[in-house]
Every structure is written in C-alpha cells, then in structure tokens.
Amino acid sequence: MMSSSSQFLHLTNNKPPSPPTPPSKPNLTSHTLSQRTHIPSHVYKHPSALLLELCTSMKELHQILPLIIKNGLYSEHLFQTKLLSLFCKYGSVNEAARVFEPIEDKLDVLYHTMLKGYAKNSSLHNAMSFFVRMKCDDVKPVVYNFTYLLKVCGDNADLRRGKEIHGQVITNGFSSNVFAMTGVVNLYAKCRQIEDAYKMFDRMPERDLVCWNTIIAGFAQNGLAKMALDLVLRMQEEGQKPDSITVVTVLPAAANIGSWRIGKLIHGYAIRAGFELLVNISTALVDMYSKCGSVGTARLIFDRMKQRTVVSWNSMIHGYVQSGDPEEAMAIFQKMLDEGVELTNVTVMEALHACADLGDLEGGKFVHKLVDELKLGYDVSVKNSLISMYSKCKRVDLAAKVFEGLQGKTIVSWNAMILGYAQNGRVNEALNHFCEMQSQNIKPDSFTLVSVIPALAELSVTRQAKWMHGLVIRNCLDKNVFVMTALVDMYAKCGAIRTARKLFDMMEERHVTTWNAMIDGYGTHGLGKDAVELFNDMQKGTIKPNDITFLCVISACSHSGLVEEGLRFFSSMKEDYGLEPAMDHYGAMVDLLGRAGQLNKAWDFIQDMPVEPGITVFGAMLGACKIHKNVELGEKAAKKLFELNPDEGGYHVLLSNIYATASMWDKMAKVRTMMEKTGLQKTPGCSLVELKNEVHSFYSGSTIHPQSKRIYAFLETLGEDIKAAGYVPDTNSIHDVEDDVKKQLLNSHSEKLAIAFGLLNTSPGTTIHIRKNLRVCGDCHNATKYISLVTGREIIVRDMHRFHHFKNGTCSCGDYW
C-alpha cells in the first residue's frame, strides 16, 4: 500500500466526460414484450400485463391483483415472476411467498427472486434458510445470490455465517468474480475484520470502481483514515478515477484525522470533477470543514446549497455545537423549523446538546415538546440526550423523571444519569444509581467510572476510594488513561496525595488531564513546590500544558505563597504557549497577590485587565481584604460584587466581617440590615465525616444528630483541654452577644462537631477525615491545631479551597491559606 496520504492532489484535473444520452423509454407493447420473453402473445395482450409493467406502489399492486386472478392469469409464469418481483420490491416477502409456494413447476428465476426478497426484506435467518432450500431443490446458484447474502451478513455483522457464504462462493467457482469478491470484501470490512478484507481485495485479479470504493469505505469506517486516503492514491496509479462515491467516502476520513489541508485538496478535486453541486458531496464537505474546525467555511458551503437534505442541516447544527457556538446551532435549528424540514432523531439530539451547553432550560423544554409531538422519544438515544440536557440545565429532577420512564435502559442511559447527579452535587444519588446499576448486572464501562469516581472523590472517604480502585482493576480498566486519571484525582481529593503520586508514576500513558490532576492535587495540599517541579517535568516531555494546567499551577503557587513563580507562569502562558488567559486565570492571579498581602498590586492588576473583571476576580480580592483587614479595597471589591451577583449573601457577610474587625459597627449593622430586608443568607456551614461506610453530616449549631448531647458535652471538656494547652478563642467575627455566648457559638461550628464525633467513635491513633463545604474559619483552624496536639490524632480537613493536615499542633498550610 502507499505510504503517504498527503498527495491526494494526484486526483486528476481532467473534466468529467459528458454523461451518456439516456435511452428513450421503451414502448411497452404486447408485441415487444412477447419478443423479449418468448411467452405466447395472447398473455401480453391483456391490460393486466401492461398495468404490472407500470405499477409503482404496493397500493397499485393490490388493485391490479384481483384483475389478474379474475382473468385466469395467476398461473402464468410471466405473471408469477412479475408478482414475485413486485411484492419483494415493495417489501412484502410474505405475500411473495404466498405466490411462490403453490407453483408446481418453479423456474430457477423464481428462486433467485425470492432469495433476493428474503435478503432485502426479511431476517438473515430466513434468507439463509431459503438458500439452503434452494440447494436441496437442486437450484443452481448465480453470482448475485451470493452478493445479496454477503451484504445481509455484513449488515448484521454476522461473521460466522458470512464465512460460510464465502466458502460457497469459492465452491461454486466465483472466487475470481469481481461482483462476488466485492461482496466478500464488504462483509469482512463491516465485521471489523479489515485485514482480512484487504487480503481478499489484494488477491483479486480484477477490480472495478465499486470494489475500490468498498475497500476505501472499509478502512474509513474502521477508523483507519490514513489507510483509506492512501488507497485513493493507489487506485489512481492503477488507472481508476475516483467518482463522487469515492469523494463522499474519503471526506469523513479527512475529517476524522482533523486534516483541513487534505480535506481542502479533496474539495478542490470535487470542484474540478463537477461534483461540488451534488447534495451528498456538499453535505460531506459541510461535515468535513466543521469537524476540522472551519465552521465558517462549512457555513459558506451550506448557504450556497440549492438543495439540502436533513443530513445537511444536521451536519451544520453539529458543526456549531462542536465548535462551541451553541447559539448559532440553535439559530440554524430554528431556521430548519421555519422551512418545514422534517426533523430526525439526530436533529433533536444536536439541538438538545446545544441547549445543554447554553444552560437553556426553556429551549430544552421546547425541544422535548417537539420530541413528544413527533414521536421521536421511542429512541433511547434521544431519551439519553434529554437526561444530559436537563442535568446540565441543573434540573436533575426532570432528568431523573425521564430516566425512570425509560424502557430498555442502556449503559449510556445509566452513565448519563450518574453523571447528571454527580455534576449537580447529588453525590449520594450518583453512588446509589451506580450500585443499582451493578445490582442489575450491567457492567460499568470507562465512561461509568469516569462519571462516578469524581462523585466519590467529593466525599473524601479513603476506604471507599480503595474499594473503587479495586473495582477498576477487577473490570480490567486500570490501563485506561481517563479512568486512571480519575483515580489520581480521587486519591488526591481524599487526602492520599502520596497514593495519587504512586498511581501517576505507574501510568504507562498520561493525558494532559492526568498532569493537571496531579498538579492540582499538590496545589490543594499546599505542596506548591512539588506542583512547580511537576509542571517543569511536564514541559520537558511531549505533552504541552493547556489553559487548565496553567490555572492549576498558578493556584498551587497561590496556596503556597510562591508569588514570583506564579507571575512567571502567567506571563509564560501567553508568551510561550499562545494561550489567552480566561477569567479564572485572572482570578487566580488576584488571589496569588492578595493572599501574599500585595493588595495594591492586586487592585492595580484588576484595573489593567484587558477584559471586564468578573465575579471570580472581585471575589478573590474581597477574600484577600478579609484576610489582611483592608477596608478601603474591600469596599470597592464588595461594591462590584453586589452589582454582579446581588443574590449571593456570602459577599455581604465577608464585608460585614471586615467592618467588624475594624470596629466599624455602624457599617456592619447597615450590611446586616440590608441582608435581612432582601432575605439574603450565607450558605450554612456543613461538615461531613465517614464512619463504618456511613457518611454523617453536621451543620453549624445543629442538634439533630443522634449523638448531639454526647458531642456537645465532649466539646466542653475538649475545649478546656485545648485552652490549657494555649488555645484562645477568636471571637472577633461574632458581635451583638455576650462573650460566653460567642464562645458557645464558636464551639458549635460544623467542623468542630464533626471532629468531636470522629474522636468519640474511632480508636486512638485513627486519622480523622473531615470534608467542609466552606472555607475553614480562623478560630476552627487554630482550635484544630490544638486538638491534634492534645489528642495525638492526625486530622485532615478538606475545605472548599484546599486541604489542611493537622498533626502535633501544626498545620500543613503553615497558617497560609
């Protein structure tokens, strides 16, 4: 085979020959029919014969049939043959059989017609059974018997029966017949035995254009795009000129390898050969340019098309969805509706994908209504798209409703529902569905695990992480790069950063997401230097960092106070890699400078941003002002946040605490009053701790846990112990109550309740793992250090930003968080 596919311009530049003049329509008189078939002429003189010749539908055939029976022509071979042919042509093989079976003296041509009917309109089993009957009735097979059977075997991917027919091809002396062997090539290609298909092709002494197109399509459809393109070169070298079918076949091959250059060369050939205006060629070009990232070119071709099929519309919508422009995808969808184009399952699935990307719930509901009206909801793939759309639009309850009503759930359905729960923070439901799926003997695949592992990671339960790791190994998915990346991320989020690094080092293949997960893991554990070192190792390899990589490493620098390194990475992002910073990158830079106390530089950085600063940026600034007690800049940041997100109570609480720390009681009261009037509330603190495979939740001030009395009593005693060791409660953030009440309020913070529960219910020396939904407050951070000192326990707390490893009275963050 040819080694290079980039020379597609070997395609000849000659203009195509003028199409032959079509033959004039024959005059179907009884005389000419009689001459053609040697049947007595009186048979043809009856109008029924001419009616059969002119019949164009099953309805017309059913109207003609009574005339044939009434006039005693039903037993004539001519009419029997024609009736068989027409019944098979219009898909009613059962009616054809009712004509065939009573015939006493069956001609071979009747058998051939019936076999064709079974192959095209019935099951593979029925077609094979009739072929066996032909052999038993001593009917000599003809070559097209085998081409029909090979096609139906290929369409059903039945390799075993296909090989049996291949054997019959050889036995009956057709192994050199180009039509039969083209059918053999097609069989092996469709059964994904492309090497065998190529062997058959290569041994053929004669090959026509159909045969070349068949093997090219085989390689393209089996994911071997480069080999398909190489074969186009070879066919030209052997004197075969590509036709429109060849072009339609290889355009997807160019799209699959993302080669815009090769696709453009094929487009050039299509223009020179006069194929460009063919609707299937134009549609394939739209699809190719879209998949190669040239959606603008695809749109130009689409707009010039004088005739469009539904596939053309679907390709254009898909192109916009894949290029990250769901708004334009929906505009095309609306235009499609306006022009009255009949929608297909693919159309609504692409529209639902666009709505999901937009987070457009109302648009998604509109498409759902169309699905019901057009009765497209019977397709499980459409239902799966609905589940994904509702999940991404944060209506997982509606997604669950679709899922529960779905008959014949597939692995994709389960994966969509599990991912939907996980993406919406419904961790327990995601895990419950995963367990239910297994109880129904549905084996998880890589997509299932990549969906459920992040959900498990949110719980930060090491024991369950190990169980999941074992499940991955038992399902032989421990070589899948994306599953292993999810495991690395899971272990890091469960506090087992060393285990995460061991898995990372063991991986034979790493994706950019693998590096990102490990760098981010180091960052959240406060191991900024390790994150920087790993990033430097990544730069030495073949995998280039992407925008997420830079976000991870800059955030890692922020958590560890590595300001100079963070600034250097931010500059390198654009200068060395051509990556444009997004809002999250700017937010990370403000956080980097703000945490380090460089508040003026952080504010100047915001003022110099080339884009309008968003919530992420001003949120980081306000948080830094809280840490470093800067009222002036805190007010400026808060003002912007109130404008951008007036419904978030957390920002008001931060500003209130800044005022309280500065003893600005009037301003603090004003913020609190405004919150009360508008009904704004801060997200309540919640901490989770796992015990014996059960997750226990604690909310600040809550007394609903069965062990509440015991927990609060234990905290009283523990409080005295840590005070004796030097702990002093920080009550600066609590106001308008007595000092004793302040201390009681501090004592009821969710993480303290969770820690107390863990200490009471585990044996000495056991590490306590806590997961909190908010940032750990200063008092709890200080108290936990002393708790680790007086109890001799290691306590690992994961808050919304990072990990804190408390041991022997110190924290891994070095009080920098």
From TrEMBL:
InterPro entries: DYW_dom, E_motif, PPR_At4g14850-like_plant, PPR_rpt, TPR-like_helical_dom_sf
Compositionally skewed regions (Pro residues) per UniProt: 16-25
PPR repeat feature ranges: 107-141, 177-207, 208-242, 309-343, 410-444, 480-510, 511-545, 546-581
UniProt KW keywords: Repeat
An MF annotation (GO) of this entry: RNA binding
Domain DYW, chain residue ranges per copy: 726-817
GO process annotations (BP): RNA modification
Keyword Lyase annotated: no
Transmembrane segments: none
Start-end of Polar residues biased regions: 1-10
Pfam families, sorted: DYW_deaminase, E_motif, PPR, PPR_2, PPR_3
Region (Disordered): 1-33
Cross-referenced PANTHER family: PENTATRICOPEPTIDE REPEAT-CONTAINING PROTEIN, TETRATRICOPEPTIDE-LIKE HELICAL DOMAIN SUPERFAMILY, DYW DOMAIN-CONTAINING PROTEIN
Family designation: Belongs to the PPR family. PCMP-H subfamily.
Protein name according to UniProt: DYW domain-containing protein
Species the sequence originates in: Castanea mollissima (Chinese chestnut)
